[in-house]
Amino acid sequence: MRSIVKGSVGTIVGETTPTAFKFLINKEVGRGTYIKAKGDGREWILAQIEDIKRSNTAYTVNQLNDAARNYDSREMMIAESRVIGVESNGKLRLPTSPARPGESVFLADEKLIKATLGLSKGDMYIGMLKGYDIRVEMDANTLVQKHCSVLAKTGSGKSYTAAVILEELLDRKVALLVIDPHGEYASMKEPNNVGDFSKYKVKPRGYDITVYTPGEMAMNPRADRPFRFNSLNLSAREVAKMIPNESSSSGQLGLLYEAISALRAETDAYTLEDIIEQVVRSNSKVKWNLVGQLESLLELGLFSGTATPCDELLSPGRAAVIDMTGIIPELQAMIVARLLTDIFEARKRRLISPGMVVVEEAHNYIPERGTGNAASTNIVRTIAAEGRKFGLGLMIISQRPARVDKNVISQCNTQIIMRVTNPNDLKALSKGLEGMTSDLEEEIKRLPAGVAMLVSNEIERPITVNIRPRKSRHGGVSTEIVSREKAKASSVQPARALEKRSRPQSPESSGNEKPVRSKKSQSSGGLLKKVFGRA
Questions:
Q1: Which long-range contacts (CB under 8 A, 24 or more apart) does 1-7 make?
Q2: What is the pLDDT of residues 53-75, one digit of tens each?
Q3: What confidence score (pLDDT) does residue 429 get?
Q4: Contact of 270 with 263, CB cutoff 8 Å
Q5: Gap between the Cα atoms of 349 and 390, Å rounded
Q6: Radius of gyration of the chain (CA)
């Protein structure tokens, strides 16, 4: 038996192949550790430990039944390693022959890991390689051009991770348009004050963020400006896209086409109000439902005032956030459909800057077939398939991968996956990602919060990354429902009850009075009623 080489962590044993080998451990190492061993050409082979097994021949069933068993420990630990490859002239290749049994195994050095995995090519710093002080940097141009997805279960840190990527893109003056259903990204204006900034070598800062609301400004205090569409000379197709499918019959759509055709024959310029008046003049029996839908759009304010120009929404080094707070899901999808169609057409004609569209809660806007319908599905699919040619990137973010259109996921060259445990979601990831194995599935199920698996054609093998702290403040913190002061409050409650029983009851507190609703609560929900139209 060969003597143990100084600095080695083990010796290769048993049968080896060009893609895998096992080694007998003589120093403590763990799953996920990167190791190296000499190949036949005497170059270093980089591998990663996938599993570790411990055995002890002194504790077999037969030995335990033997009264004269030997207590001397004969324990062995065997590591199973997957070969990543050999780095040669800046390119990775698999070794042509397997490593030799008896060769020593060493911990891989930082230079070899970075060169072999391809971590030294990028310029976007998203975190550290798990278990190492090695910066993980992605190529910003590739990420934007070839699209990206961030997929994880709720609470795993997907929105936090997405914001880290957006920060890096904004640092490189990329124009961003963010579809934000819950108002989580407005906080990027402010610097962060929580995180291990010294370890990750980042400095807190805020970013140039403008928040738009498609609804009324009074209903969204985070909004900086209203978002509005152009209401002049709308086509029947444009108006039809803004009406829920379940609310529009063929008769109503025919009536809409007739009304707009009549207006075009009379005038060169008409508005949504003119369309409504023209529909009212009709003798059709189905006109009132259509009028109600059109008035709902009018009252929402989407077509009132000055239209928001596309070049304002895609501006280099700035993020335009469309905050959908207060807008019902059906109308959200229709707004996204019209908005992204306008953006894509403007980009094709080179009227606006290149940039990236970010779709949060993507399962609501591009649902998988059989899980729902959305007016925005077709345009998002088009951007995923053709956006690269026109300089328009796409990032999709979702907590339910199984409910996101698989065609769109498959178009994303970079996949950032955080903890996923739902079997349907894991199955969807397996179908949508090349090279997904059962071992990777198990690893995804065990990822702790704040740790992501990065899968990309630019990186030779999926890697796990400790995501760096955000530079800007995180706005996606869950609202506390159960108070931390519960215990304290419960101890005070009996004393208050005793005090209440000892006080004489006033006529005003006889228990028959009705609760008084505040003006704020009376006015809440008004926007939803407007969207559905009059009863």
A1: 2/102, 2/104, 4/104, 5/104, 7/106
A2: 998 776 766 655 555 555 555 68
A3: 84
A4: yes
A5: 9
A6: 30
For the record, the structure tokens of 429 come out as 């990831």
Kindly report, residue by residue over 364-391, the tens digit of the pLDDT. 999 998 777 888 999 999 999 999 999 9
In the three-class reduction of DSSP (H, G, I as helix; E, B as strand; rest coil), residue 174 is classed as coil
Those residues with Cβ within 8 angstroms of residue 4's Cβ, 6 or more apart along the chain or in another chain: 11, 26, 104
Burial 4-26 (b: 16+ CB within 10 A, else e): eeeebbbbbbeebebeebbbbbe
CA distances from 329 to 338, 526, 527, 535 (A): 14, 15, 13, 20
- Cβ neighbours around 466 below 10 Å, total: 19
Q: What residue type is 87 in one-letter code?
A: E
Backbone φ and ψ of 179, nearest 5° = -90, 110
Residue with tokens 């609703």: 517
Q: Longest C-alpha distance within the chain, in Å?
A: 108
Backbone angles phi, psi at 66, to 5 degrees: -90, 120
Supply the mean pLDDT for the chain: 84
- For residue 65, what are the contacts with CB-CB under 8 A and spacing of at least 6? none
Entry pTM: 0.81
User: What's the average model confidence in pLDDT over 492-508?
Assistant: 45
Residues 6 or more apart whose CB falls under 8 angstroms from that of 376 comprise: 333, 334, 336, 337, 340, 365, 366
Name 533's Cβ contacts closer than 8 Å, sequence gap at least 6. 247, 289, 292, 293, 295, 296
